[in-house]
Amino acid sequence: MKLLSVIVPCYNEEENVPYFYEELKKQEAFFHDKDVELEIIYVDDGSKDRTVAEVRKLHEQDERVHLVSFSRNFGKEAGIYAGLSKAKGDFAVLMDADLQDPPALLPEMYSYLEQGYDAVATRRVSRKGEPPIRSFFARMFYRLMRKISKTEIVDGARDYRLMTRQVVDAILSMQEYNRFTKGIFGWVGFQTKWLEYENIERAKGETKWSFWKLFIYSLEGIMAFSTAPLAIASVLGVLFCFLAVVLIIVTVVRTLIFGDPTSGWPSMVCIISLLGGVQLLCIGIVGQYLSKTYMEVKRRPIYLVKEEL
Ligand code: UDP
Ligand code: MG
Q: In what order do the strands lie in the sheet with 91-94?
Protein backbone atom coordinates (compact mmCIF):
# COMPACT_ATOMS: atom_id res chain seq x y z
CA MET A 1 0.00 0.00 0.00
CA LYS A 2 1.39 3.40 -1.00
CA LEU A 3 0.44 6.74 0.49
CA LEU A 4 -0.36 9.94 -1.39
CA SER A 5 -0.30 13.16 0.64
CA VAL A 6 -2.59 15.91 -0.61
CA ILE A 7 -1.41 19.28 0.69
CA VAL A 8 -3.90 22.13 0.72
CA PRO A 9 -2.79 25.60 1.88
CA CYS A 10 -5.83 27.51 3.13
CA TYR A 11 -6.26 31.11 4.06
CA ASN A 12 -9.84 32.07 4.89
CA GLU A 13 -11.32 29.15 2.96
CA GLU A 14 -14.11 28.07 5.34
CA GLU A 15 -16.52 27.34 2.48
CA ASN A 16 -13.95 25.56 0.36
CA VAL A 17 -12.54 23.20 3.01
CA PRO A 18 -15.52 20.77 3.10
CA TYR A 19 -16.23 21.30 -0.60
CA PHE A 20 -12.68 20.39 -1.52
CA TYR A 21 -12.91 17.28 0.64
CA GLU A 22 -16.06 16.14 -1.17
CA GLU A 23 -14.53 16.75 -4.59
CA LEU A 24 -11.32 14.94 -3.70
CA LYS A 25 -13.26 11.93 -2.42
CA LYS A 26 -14.55 11.39 -5.95
CA GLN A 27 -11.01 10.41 -6.95
CA GLU A 28 -10.63 7.95 -4.11
CA ALA A 29 -11.90 4.94 -6.05
CA PHE A 30 -9.24 5.36 -8.72
CA PHE A 31 -6.44 5.43 -6.17
CA HIS A 32 -7.94 2.56 -4.23
CA ASP A 33 -7.68 0.40 -7.35
CA LYS A 34 -4.04 1.39 -7.63
CA ASP A 35 -3.40 0.41 -4.00
CA VAL A 36 -2.77 4.00 -3.05
CA GLU A 37 -4.18 5.53 0.12
CA LEU A 38 -4.83 9.25 0.50
CA GLU A 39 -4.08 11.61 3.36
CA ILE A 40 -5.19 15.24 3.25
CA ILE A 41 -3.15 17.89 5.01
CA TYR A 42 -4.93 21.22 5.31
CA VAL A 43 -2.45 23.95 6.20
CA ASP A 44 -4.29 26.82 7.83
CA ASP A 45 -2.29 29.94 7.13
CA GLY A 46 -3.59 32.01 10.05
CA SER A 47 -7.18 32.22 8.76
CA LYS A 48 -9.50 34.65 10.47
CA ASP A 49 -12.67 32.72 9.61
CA ARG A 50 -13.87 29.22 10.52
CA THR A 51 -11.33 27.35 8.39
CA VAL A 52 -9.73 25.59 11.38
CA ALA A 53 -13.11 24.58 12.82
CA GLU A 54 -14.11 23.11 9.45
CA VAL A 55 -10.91 21.07 9.26
CA ARG A 56 -11.36 19.86 12.84
CA LYS A 57 -14.84 18.69 11.95
CA LEU A 58 -13.49 16.72 8.99
CA HIS A 59 -10.72 15.26 11.15
CA GLU A 60 -13.30 13.91 13.57
CA GLN A 61 -15.14 12.10 10.76
CA ASP A 62 -12.06 10.96 8.91
CA GLU A 63 -8.71 10.39 10.54
CA ARG A 64 -6.88 10.74 7.24
CA VAL A 65 -7.56 14.48 7.37
CA HIS A 66 -4.78 16.40 9.07
CA LEU A 67 -4.28 19.99 10.09
CA VAL A 68 -1.31 22.27 10.56
CA SER A 69 -2.43 25.64 11.84
CA PHE A 70 -0.07 28.63 11.84
CA SER A 71 0.16 31.24 14.57
CA ARG A 72 -0.46 33.95 11.95
CA ASN A 73 -0.51 34.43 8.18
CA PHE A 74 2.88 33.37 6.82
CA GLY A 75 1.96 33.20 3.13
CA LYS A 76 1.24 30.32 0.79
CA GLU A 77 4.93 29.50 0.29
CA ALA A 78 5.30 28.79 4.02
CA GLY A 79 2.09 26.75 3.88
CA ILE A 80 3.52 24.59 1.11
CA TYR A 81 6.69 24.04 3.11
CA ALA A 82 4.77 23.10 6.25
CA GLY A 83 2.53 20.70 4.32
CA LEU A 84 5.47 18.99 2.64
CA SER A 85 7.24 18.67 6.01
CA LYS A 86 4.21 16.98 7.53
CA ALA A 87 3.52 14.73 4.54
CA LYS A 88 4.33 11.09 5.15
CA GLY A 89 3.38 9.96 1.66
CA ASP A 90 5.42 8.19 -0.98
CA PHE A 91 3.99 10.90 -3.24
CA ALA A 92 2.71 14.37 -2.51
CA VAL A 93 0.49 16.73 -4.45
CA LEU A 94 -0.05 20.45 -3.82
CA MET A 95 -3.56 21.75 -4.46
CA ASP A 96 -5.40 25.03 -3.88
CA ALA A 97 -8.44 24.88 -1.65
CA ASP A 98 -10.57 26.84 -4.13
CA LEU A 99 -10.67 23.94 -6.64
CA GLN A 100 -8.82 25.92 -9.26
CA ASP A 101 -6.63 22.84 -9.39
CA PRO A 102 -9.12 20.22 -10.59
CA PRO A 103 -8.89 16.91 -8.66
CA ALA A 104 -10.21 15.21 -11.81
CA LEU A 105 -6.73 15.62 -13.27
CA LEU A 106 -5.13 13.48 -10.55
CA PRO A 107 -5.51 10.07 -12.27
CA GLU A 108 -3.81 11.37 -15.40
CA MET A 109 -1.06 12.97 -13.33
CA TYR A 110 -0.52 9.76 -11.41
CA SER A 111 -0.25 7.75 -14.62
CA TYR A 112 2.82 9.79 -15.58
CA LEU A 113 4.52 8.96 -12.28
CA GLU A 114 3.89 5.31 -13.09
CA GLN A 115 5.63 5.90 -16.41
CA GLY A 116 8.71 6.98 -14.53
CA TYR A 117 8.46 10.75 -14.27
CA ASP A 118 9.59 12.28 -10.96
CA ALA A 119 7.08 15.10 -11.00
CA VAL A 120 3.97 16.11 -12.90
CA ALA A 121 3.36 19.85 -13.09
CA THR A 122 0.50 21.83 -14.53
CA ARG A 123 0.21 25.11 -16.34
CA ARG A 124 -2.85 26.97 -17.44
CA VAL A 125 -2.87 27.91 -21.07
CA SER A 126 -5.52 30.61 -20.88
CA ARG A 127 -5.97 33.43 -18.44
CA LYS A 128 -9.70 33.60 -18.94
CA GLY A 129 -11.56 35.57 -16.30
CA GLU A 130 -8.52 37.60 -15.35
CA PRO A 131 -8.19 41.38 -15.80
CA PRO A 132 -6.24 42.11 -19.04
CA ILE A 133 -3.62 44.31 -17.35
CA ARG A 134 -2.83 41.54 -14.94
CA SER A 135 -2.32 39.06 -17.79
CA PHE A 136 -0.13 41.59 -19.59
CA PHE A 137 2.16 42.13 -16.60
CA ALA A 138 2.26 38.42 -15.88
CA ARG A 139 3.43 37.74 -19.41
CA MET A 140 6.07 40.48 -19.17
CA PHE A 141 7.30 39.02 -15.90
CA TYR A 142 7.82 35.55 -17.32
CA ARG A 143 9.54 36.91 -20.42
CA LEU A 144 11.92 38.93 -18.25
CA MET A 145 12.57 36.00 -15.94
CA ARG A 146 13.50 33.78 -18.87
CA LYS A 147 16.12 36.34 -19.90
CA ILE A 148 17.70 37.08 -16.55
CA SER A 149 17.47 33.86 -14.59
CA LYS A 150 19.15 30.53 -15.23
CA THR A 151 16.37 28.76 -13.36
CA GLU A 152 13.50 27.69 -15.56
CA ILE A 153 10.28 29.43 -14.58
CA VAL A 154 7.35 28.43 -16.75
CA ASP A 155 4.65 30.89 -17.86
CA GLY A 156 1.28 30.10 -16.35
CA ALA A 157 2.72 27.37 -14.13
CA ARG A 158 0.52 26.60 -11.17
CA ASP A 159 1.59 25.17 -7.87
CA TYR A 160 -0.58 22.12 -8.67
CA ARG A 161 2.12 19.48 -8.72
CA LEU A 162 2.40 15.80 -8.01
CA MET A 163 5.82 14.56 -7.01
CA THR A 164 7.72 11.62 -5.64
CA ARG A 165 9.24 11.47 -2.17
CA GLN A 166 12.65 12.20 -3.69
CA VAL A 167 11.44 15.53 -5.09
CA VAL A 168 9.66 16.38 -1.84
CA ASP A 169 12.90 15.85 0.08
CA ALA A 170 14.80 17.98 -2.42
CA ILE A 171 12.34 20.84 -1.92
CA LEU A 172 12.50 20.45 1.85
CA SER A 173 16.28 20.68 1.69
CA MET A 174 15.95 24.24 0.41
CA GLN A 175 15.44 26.05 3.65
CA GLU A 176 15.59 29.62 2.44
CA TYR A 177 13.36 32.15 4.10
CA ASN A 178 12.35 34.00 0.92
CA ARG A 179 10.54 31.17 -0.79
CA PHE A 180 9.55 31.68 -4.41
CA THR A 181 8.05 28.26 -4.98
CA LYS A 182 7.87 28.42 -8.78
CA GLY A 183 11.61 29.05 -8.83
CA ILE A 184 12.32 26.37 -6.25
CA PHE A 185 10.51 23.75 -8.38
CA GLY A 186 12.59 24.76 -11.38
CA TRP A 187 15.80 24.82 -9.38
CA VAL A 188 15.51 21.27 -7.99
CA GLY A 189 15.08 19.91 -11.52
CA PHE A 190 14.09 16.23 -11.94
CA GLN A 191 12.12 14.75 -14.84
CA THR A 192 8.94 16.80 -15.00
CA LYS A 193 5.91 16.17 -17.19
CA TRP A 194 3.86 19.29 -17.96
CA LEU A 195 0.10 19.08 -18.33
CA GLU A 196 -1.96 21.96 -19.63
CA TYR A 197 -5.49 23.02 -18.84
CA GLU A 198 -7.80 25.97 -19.28
CA ASN A 199 -8.06 28.40 -16.39
CA ILE A 200 -10.84 27.58 -13.93
CA GLU A 201 -12.31 30.31 -11.76
CA ARG A 202 -12.21 29.79 -8.00
CA ALA A 203 -15.15 27.90 -6.48
CA LYS A 204 -16.07 30.10 -3.50
CA GLY A 205 -14.67 33.12 -1.69
CA GLU A 206 -12.25 35.62 -3.15
CA THR A 207 -8.67 35.61 -4.40
CA LYS A 208 -6.08 36.81 -1.88
CA TRP A 209 -3.98 38.43 -4.56
CA SER A 210 -4.35 42.06 -5.41
CA PHE A 211 -2.47 43.48 -8.35
CA TRP A 212 -0.05 45.24 -6.00
CA LYS A 213 0.64 42.07 -3.99
CA LEU A 214 1.37 40.20 -7.22
CA PHE A 215 3.71 42.97 -8.35
CA ILE A 216 5.72 42.84 -5.10
CA TYR A 217 5.73 39.04 -5.30
CA SER A 218 7.15 39.18 -8.84
CA LEU A 219 9.98 41.45 -7.65
CA GLU A 220 10.73 38.95 -4.91
CA GLY A 221 10.80 36.19 -7.48
CA ILE A 222 13.32 38.11 -9.54
CA MET A 223 15.53 38.74 -6.53
CA ALA A 224 15.31 35.17 -5.28
CA PHE A 225 16.35 33.61 -8.57
CA SER A 226 18.47 36.17 -10.36
CA THR A 227 21.29 38.55 -9.56
CA ALA A 228 20.95 40.30 -12.93
CA PRO A 229 19.66 43.56 -11.37
CA LEU A 230 22.96 43.87 -9.49
CA ALA A 231 24.84 43.48 -12.76
CA ILE A 232 22.62 46.13 -14.32
CA ALA A 233 23.71 48.52 -11.56
CA SER A 234 27.39 47.93 -12.35
CA VAL A 235 26.86 48.18 -16.11
CA LEU A 236 25.04 51.49 -15.71
CA GLY A 237 27.91 52.76 -13.56
CA VAL A 238 30.51 51.88 -16.20
CA LEU A 239 28.38 53.45 -18.95
CA PHE A 240 27.98 56.71 -17.10
CA CYS A 241 31.72 56.89 -16.25
CA PHE A 242 32.50 56.48 -19.92
CA LEU A 243 29.97 59.14 -20.86
CA ALA A 244 31.43 61.50 -18.25
CA VAL A 245 34.97 61.16 -19.66
CA VAL A 246 33.69 61.94 -23.15
CA LEU A 247 31.80 64.96 -21.86
CA ILE A 248 34.84 66.25 -19.96
CA ILE A 249 36.97 66.04 -23.08
CA VAL A 250 34.30 67.78 -25.16
CA THR A 251 33.92 70.54 -22.57
CA VAL A 252 37.66 71.16 -22.18
CA VAL A 253 38.22 71.26 -25.91
CA ARG A 254 35.20 73.49 -26.49
CA THR A 255 36.26 75.93 -23.77
CA LEU A 256 39.83 76.10 -25.05
CA ILE A 257 38.80 76.68 -28.67
CA PHE A 258 35.57 78.71 -28.37
CA GLY A 259 35.88 80.12 -24.83
CA ASP A 260 32.27 79.74 -23.72
CA PRO A 261 32.39 79.09 -19.94
CA THR A 262 28.88 79.97 -18.71
CA SER A 263 26.46 78.24 -21.07
CA GLY A 264 24.98 74.83 -20.33
CA TRP A 265 23.22 75.45 -17.01
CA PRO A 266 19.93 73.74 -18.02
CA SER A 267 21.72 70.74 -19.42
CA MET A 268 23.74 70.54 -16.21
CA VAL A 269 20.56 70.33 -14.15
CA CYS A 270 19.27 67.56 -16.40
CA ILE A 271 22.48 65.58 -16.11
CA ILE A 272 22.65 65.96 -12.33
CA SER A 273 19.03 64.84 -11.90
CA LEU A 274 19.53 61.91 -14.24
CA LEU A 275 22.67 60.76 -12.45
CA GLY A 276 21.09 61.30 -9.05
CA GLY A 277 18.16 59.15 -10.14
CA VAL A 278 20.35 56.39 -11.52
CA GLN A 279 22.46 56.37 -8.35
CA LEU A 280 19.46 56.10 -6.09
CA LEU A 281 18.01 53.34 -8.26
CA CYS A 282 21.24 51.37 -8.05
CA ILE A 283 21.58 51.88 -4.30
CA GLY A 284 17.97 50.74 -4.04
CA ILE A 285 18.71 47.55 -5.97
CA VAL A 286 21.71 46.81 -3.77
CA GLY A 287 19.58 47.60 -0.72
CA GLN A 288 16.91 45.12 -1.80
CA TYR A 289 19.43 42.31 -2.04
CA LEU A 290 20.98 43.39 1.25
CA SER A 291 17.61 43.28 2.97
CA LYS A 292 16.93 39.81 1.59
CA THR A 293 20.35 38.69 2.81
CA TYR A 294 19.62 40.28 6.18
CA MET A 295 16.37 38.32 6.50
CA GLU A 296 18.13 35.10 5.45
CA VAL A 297 20.97 35.41 7.97
CA LYS A 298 18.52 35.84 10.82
CA ARG A 299 17.53 32.22 10.17
CA ARG A 300 14.02 32.77 11.40
CA PRO A 301 11.70 29.79 11.09
CA ILE A 302 9.66 29.70 7.88
CA TYR A 303 6.45 29.27 9.90
CA LEU A 304 5.23 28.77 13.49
CA VAL A 305 2.67 26.12 14.36
CA LYS A 306 -0.18 26.81 16.76
CA GLU A 307 -2.06 23.57 16.42
CA GLU A 308 -1.54 20.24 14.69
CA LEU A 309 -3.86 17.28 14.14
N1 UDP B 1 -3.29 31.02 0.42
C2 UDP B 1 -2.55 30.81 1.60
N3 UDP B 1 -1.99 31.88 2.22
C4 UDP B 1 -2.11 33.16 1.73
C5 UDP B 1 -2.82 33.34 0.53
C6 UDP B 1 -3.40 32.25 -0.10
O7 UDP B 1 -2.41 29.68 2.07
O8 UDP B 1 -1.57 34.08 2.35
C9 UDP B 1 -3.92 29.84 -0.25
C10 UDP B 1 -5.39 30.03 -0.56
O11 UDP B 1 -6.22 29.68 0.52
C12 UDP B 1 -5.58 29.11 -1.75
C13 UDP B 1 -4.23 29.17 -2.45
O14 UDP B 1 -3.31 29.66 -1.49
O15 UDP B 1 -5.83 27.76 -1.36
C16 UDP B 1 -4.28 30.09 -3.67
O17 UDP B 1 -4.78 31.36 -3.28
P18 UDP B 1 -5.76 32.19 -4.21
O19 UDP B 1 -6.82 31.31 -4.75
O20 UDP B 1 -6.18 33.38 -3.42
O21 UDP B 1 -4.77 32.66 -5.36
P22 UDP B 1 -5.07 32.64 -6.94
O23 UDP B 1 -5.64 31.29 -7.27
O24 UDP B 1 -6.02 33.74 -7.18
O25 UDP B 1 -3.71 32.86 -7.55
MG1 MG C 1 -7.24 30.49 -6.50
A: 192-197, 119-124, 157-164, 91-94, 2-10, 36-44, 65-70, 305-308
Residue 190 lies in domain: 2-226+301-308
Number of compact structural domains in the chain: 2
Strand partners, 194: 121
- Of the two residues 263 and 6, the one the predictor is more confident about is 6
> What's the pLDDT score for residue 11?
92
Q: Summarize pLDDT for 68-120 with one digit per residue, the tens.
A: 999 999 989 999 999 999 999 899 999 999 888 889 889 999 999 889 999 99
264 CA to centre of ligand 2 in angstroms: 57
Residues 232 and 293 in one domain: yes
Residues 27 and 126 in one domain: yes
Pocket test for ligand 1, best of 15, 84, 96, 123 (most atoms within 8 A of CB): 96
Question: What is the separation of C-alpha 198 from the centre of its chain, rounded to a whole number of angstroms?
Answer: 20
Which atom of ligand 1 has the smallest separation from the CA of 9? Answer: 7
pLDDT in tens, 2-51: 999 999 999 998 888 999 999 898 888 888 888 889 999 999 999 998 99
Distance 204 CA to ligand 2 centre (A): 9
Q: What is the pLDDT of residue 142?
A: 86
Strands 305-308 and 65-70: antiparallel
Identify the CATH number of the domain in which residue 134 sits. 3.90.550.10
Verify that 193 and 244 share a domain, yes or no.
no
**Relative to the CA of 202, which ligand 1 atom is closest?**
19
Full-model pTM:
0.80
